[in-house]
Amino acid sequence: MQAKKHTFNYYGNCVGWPKSEVDYLIEMVDMAASITRATFLKHVDLEELRDMEKQMGYDTLPWERGGLRMKDDWAVSYHRSKLKGKTVYYFKHSGIEYVFTE
Length: 102
Known about the structure:
Distance between the termini: 22 Å
């Protein structure tokens, strides 16, 4: 029997981050390691991510043609880090960190 996979859910982004916790956000970004999109996808809730991609204006379905898909956007990066001592995953889009936590 396989071990249960951890699913990280969307927590928030840096724009709406509580001012009292900005130091934790800065530390998270400073400690971050770059990861591939494939690694990111292994850990986050895919339905939540797909909804976010759609809200950001990306094409999300394989048969949609002509539009940009997030996976092909060179300006999006993926990261693993720690927030308050716990592992988090996040992607950076247009200078905004979108954080996923357990």
